[in-house]
Design goal:
Number of helices: 5
Structural class: mainly alpha
Shape: elongated
Oligomer: single chain
Order of helices and strands: HHHHH
Length: 92
């Protein structure tokens, strides 16, 4: 329904992935979504490392790891997961 030039411009913008949110509201919630995604990814890495090392992860520990949103804490747990002999070693 748009003129061809406008349609081409919009398609180019969408393909470039350069959208910048203008409102404080949008930037804040977009940033929270990005942070949540990074925390979820870090938690998955921790659980993957523990699984690869055949370390059992009880449900309470899995919940603690997956509900954590502090990236620094998750990074510390990831470092500890590399050498832990039990899941409790992550939290000590």
């Amino acid at each position: 329904m748009l003129p061809e030039a406008a349609r081409d411009l919009l398609e180019d913008m969408m393909m470039a992935g350069t959208r910048e949110y203008k409102s404080d509201f949008a930037r804040r919630y977009y940033g929270q979504g990005v942070a949540k995604g990074r925390a979820d990814e870090a938690a998955e890495i921790i659980l993957t490392v523990l699984s690869a090392r055949d370390i059992a992860v009880p449900e309470h520990a899995r919940t603690r790891i997956t509900e954590c949103t502090d990236l620094e804490q998750l990074e510390e747990w990831a470092r500890r997961a590399a050498t832990a002999s039990a899941v409790a070693d992550l939290f000590d």
